Amino acid sequence: MAATIDNSNAVQATKKKHLGIPEAAFVEDVDSFMKQPGNETADSALRRLDEQYQKYKYMELNLSQKKLRLKNQIPQITQTLEILRHMQKKKANVMLEYDIDEAQALLEKNLSTASRNLETLVDDLDFLRDQFTTVEVNMARVYNWDVKRRSKENLLKSADKS
């Protein structure tokens, strides 16, 4: 029983972890996939899969930009913290918007948050790459299914003409 609970908690944690990024369903059975509404033709199914792929590309672009901002922000916060610590050691008497201890606490909190957000973004980008792969494989499977279907149709037409 504990394994089931742990497993369900892990699944919930994964869903929360990648909140906002829909998981791409793998098309196991292309025949049943093509019978679903909206998949009347291979072209329409491929178009829908391509739309999904483009949405993932857009998400990747946004996440990559956020990652870049965080990668730039973390060294800046670290440098500011180092300056602040240097000021504390030298007993600098400088007018600041915050008192030095408050500023240090705030900067440490911001650094911790930025580092956590960067880790989350890296995980989200990895998850997103998995979704790319799944959609690409789905597109290939639908395309191959259509090639086989047309090949069978052409064979049947050739047999009928003979």
TrEMBL record:
<dbReference type="GO" id="GO:0005737">
    <property type="term" value="C:cytoplasm"/>
</dbReference>
<comment type="similarity">
    <text>Belongs to the prefoldin subunit alpha family.</text>
</comment>
<dbReference type="GO" id="GO:0007021">
    <property type="term" value="P:tubulin complex assembly"/>
</dbReference>
<keyword id="KW-0143">Chaperone</keyword>
<dbReference type="InterPro" id="IPR009053">
    <property type="entry name" value="Prefoldin"/>
</dbReference>
<comment type="subunit">
    <text>Heterohexamer of two PFD-alpha type and four PFD-beta type subunits.</text>
</comment>
<dbReference type="GO" id="GO:0006457">
    <property type="term" value="P:protein folding"/>
</dbReference>
<comment type="function">
    <text>Binds specifically to cytosolic chaperonin (c-CPN) and transfers target proteins to it. Binds to nascent polypeptide chain and promotes folding in an environment in which there are many competing pathways for nonnative proteins.</text>
</comment>
<dbReference type="GO" id="GO:0007017">
    <property type="term" value="P:microtubule-based process"/>
</dbReference>
<dbReference type="GO" id="GO:0016272">
    <property type="term" value="C:prefoldin complex"/>
</dbReference>
<dbReference type="InterPro" id="IPR004127">
    <property type="entry name" value="Prefoldin_subunit_alpha"/>
</dbReference>
<dbReference type="InterPro" id="IPR016655">
    <property type="entry name" value="PFD3"/>
</dbReference>
<protein>
    <recommendedName>
        <fullName>Prefoldin subunit 3</fullName>
    </recommendedName>
</protein>
<dbReference type="GO" id="GO:0015631">
    <property type="term" value="F:tubulin binding"/>
</dbReference>
<dbReference type="Pfam" id="PF02996">
    <property type="entry name" value="Prefoldin"/>
</dbReference>
